[in-house]
Write a sequence for this structure.
């Protein structure tokens, strides 16, 4: 009797249930070596597909699977999936090997933005067109224009390695949403230079085009990202572009690069300076909000249908709750 293909029986992360026996293909999004109490090595993996991520652990036979479980590799994994009230969901790997191309559809493994790319690009053009200061408009066109090398890279890059919009076009999605939020909020508070704030919002994470790179089917930090960091990389790129524009006002230049340098908000969060202007403060606040809400999007993908609470999430420093639809809530109250 002919066996069904693995592609037709793909088990997605979102569909896994406590006690389920798993035998499916996933992409390795992170590999970490750890030590047991007896000194032996075990592996912690973060496996994923387009529906989300799951933590996995390899207790035995580590030496034979280190190479095939590097970040970005596509693997076929078998083992039990369990959900512990204290430690959360874990896939205990019994067997793992490199997946053959015919065993999976690449599209099943790749997360994607919920917003159509054409819509984001149209919204980006519309927003840039509202920037009135000519030097800022030229800066945005040089760095984010579709014909520039930087602009093409910026459109393709992820916004993060894991916590929010960690997929192709994720940086475009994130920076655009931050800039749109900044644009809307700037009208509510006096004294904010909207053009500076919007420009800074669009450019605040531009260093990520050098800090992250596609490795196999996943994203990881580059050497430059680890050694220099995305903020210094972004600052240098923006500063260099400003210096190439004749007559760029010094005060405006300082205001924009300050946003790039200060957007993490605190020294302990990686910013070399804290926000010292209205514009930098606004961008930091909206950026932080966008990243946090992006974490809710990431977490929700991993929950089974009907599940309301997530486990502990490091990005939120707690659990996430997703209220039931109004129809379900009304039925619950009636009961």
């Amino acid at each position: 009797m002919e066996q069904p293909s693995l592609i037709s029986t793909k088990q997605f992360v979102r569909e896994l249930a406590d006690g389920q026996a798993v035998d499916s293909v996933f992409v390795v999004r992170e590999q970490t070596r750890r030590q047991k109490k007896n000194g032996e090595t075990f592996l912690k993996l973060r496996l994923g597909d387009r529906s989300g991520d799951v933590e996995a652990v390899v207790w035995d036979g580590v030496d034979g699977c280190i190479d095939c479980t590097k970040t970005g590799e596509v693997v076929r994994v078998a083992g039990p999936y369990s959900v512990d009230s204290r430690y959360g969901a874990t896939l205990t790997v019994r067997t793992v090997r490199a997946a053959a191309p015919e065993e999976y559809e690449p599209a099943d493994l790749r997360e994607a933005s919920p917003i159509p790319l054409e819509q984001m690009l149209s919204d980006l053009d519309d927003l840039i067109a509202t920037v009135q200061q000519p030097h800022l408009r030229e800066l945005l066109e040089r760095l984010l224009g579709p014909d520039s090398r930087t602009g093409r890279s910026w459109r393709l890059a992820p916004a993060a390695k894991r916590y929010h919009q960690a997929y192709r076009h994720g940086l475009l999605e994130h920076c655009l949403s931050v800039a749109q939020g900044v644009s809307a909020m700037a009208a509510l508070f006096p004294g904010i230079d909207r053009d500076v704030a919007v420009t800074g919002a669009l450019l605040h994470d531009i260093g990520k085009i050098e800090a992250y790179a596609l490795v196999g089917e996943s994203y990881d930090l580059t050497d430059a990202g680890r050694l220099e960091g995305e903020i210094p990389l972004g600052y240098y790129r923006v500063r260099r572009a400003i210096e190439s524009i004749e007559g760029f006002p010094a005060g405006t230049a300082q205001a924009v690069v300050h946003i790039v340098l200060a957007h993490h908000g605190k020294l302990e969060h990686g910013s070399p300076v804290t926000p010292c202007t209205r514009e930098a403060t606004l961008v930091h606040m909206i950026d932080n909000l966008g990243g946090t809400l992006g974490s809710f999007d990431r977490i929700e993908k991993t929950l089974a249908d009907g599940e309301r609470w997530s486990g502990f999430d490091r990005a939120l420093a707690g659990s996430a709750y997703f209220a039931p639809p109004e129809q379900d809530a009304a039925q619950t109250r009636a009961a």
The first helix runs from residue 117 to 129. The chain has a mean pLDDT of 90. The first strand starts at residue 21 and ends at 35. The domain at 11-108 is CATH 2.40.50.140 (OB fold (Dihydrolipoamide Acetyltransferase, E2P)).
